[in-house]
Write a structure and sequence with these properties.
Blueprint lengths: L4 H8 L11 H8 L8 E8 L7 E7 L5 E5 L4 E7 L2 E8 L15 H4 L1 E5 L5 E12 L4 E17 L3 H6 L2 H6 L12 H9 L3 E9 L5 E11 L5 E12 L3 E13 L4
Length: about 260
């Protein structure tokens, strides 16, 4: 799912919000009662098609296991604390998006509205919108699409890392009401779409049910149920260009267990 947690944290520094009953952390812990806290130190993405797409995201921590910086080698974010609380976030370039690791061709997690959740409280059907150019009218139009999400039974591996950056507390403290938080739509959106389990497949369809794209993730998990590596296969289906498949490999590293 697309979670721009640097922008979420930044917004939180200027907001006073009320807490709702069903928090992000409660949902995660209810769905993963035996989850072990592991903190990501790096995620390496290697493209089988184009080496220029290769990326390594690095996460650094202080002695209190708080995230102090995040970088992909080009864009970066620096987190500062005062008396134990997050005080400031300085970022360069775009904020990081988890969905980018799945090489998704759409912005379903930016503009998506949840249609259905599964029994674990994870979003499984989304409605989303894309702006496209219509050559017949020579103008931009907005098209509506659907996204179907499937999950492994393992916990969301980003939860504790995002928590260490202050993002989970922010989502826990936001009211799930856009009118109550008119200045915090990104936080509300992130919380509504945040899953407790790890995404393994996303299927994009048009309103007629035709499959436009599929993104499949095949992960290798360690004994703590965190992914150590994975293969992302992204396939686009086009009525003119046919089927196009791209493959990416992921490698995860974590802080050593205490």
């Amino acid at each position: 799912m697309k979670l721009k947690f640097l922008s979420i944290i930044t917004l939180a520094l200027t907001l006073c919000t009320s807490c709702s009953d069903d928090s992000t952390s409660d949902g995660f812990l209810d769905g993963n009662p035996d989850a072990v806290a592991r903190y990501i130190t790096s995620i390496t993405v290697v493209s089988a098609q184009d080496a220029s797409d290769n990326t390594t995201i690095t996460v650094n921590y202080d002695d209190a296991n708080r995230v102090t910086s995040i970088s992909d080698g080009i864009d970066s974010g620096i987190l500062a604390y005062n008396n134990g609380d997050l005080a400031n976030v300085a970022s360069s370039g775009d904020t990081f998006a988890i969905e980018e690791l799945y090489e998704s061709p759409y912005d379903a997690f930016d503009t998506g509205e949840v249609i259905n959740y599964n029994n674990d409280g994870n979003p499984v059907n989304l409605r989303f919108f894309e702006s496209e150019y219509d050559w017949n009218t020579n103008s931009d139009i907005t098209e509506e699409y659907r996204a179907e999400i499937q999950y492994d039974n393992q916990p969301n591996p980003y939860f504790y890392t995002i928590q260490a950056a202050g993002g989970i507390e922010v989502m826990d403290n936001v009211d799930l009401n856009f009118s109550a938080n008119p200045d915090a739509p990104q936080i509300v959106q992130a919380r509504m779409l945040f899953p407790s389990k790890n995404i393994k497949k996303i299927i994009y369809r048009d309103l007629e049910g035709n499959v436009l794209s599929e993104v499949t993730a095949d992960f290798v998990y360690n004994s703590d149920n965190y992914p150590t590596s994975g293969t992302i296969t992204a396939t686009d289906f086009d009525e003119f260009d046919g089927e196009t498949t791209s493959i990416y490999s992921l490698t995860f590293t974590y802080q050593a267990s205490n």
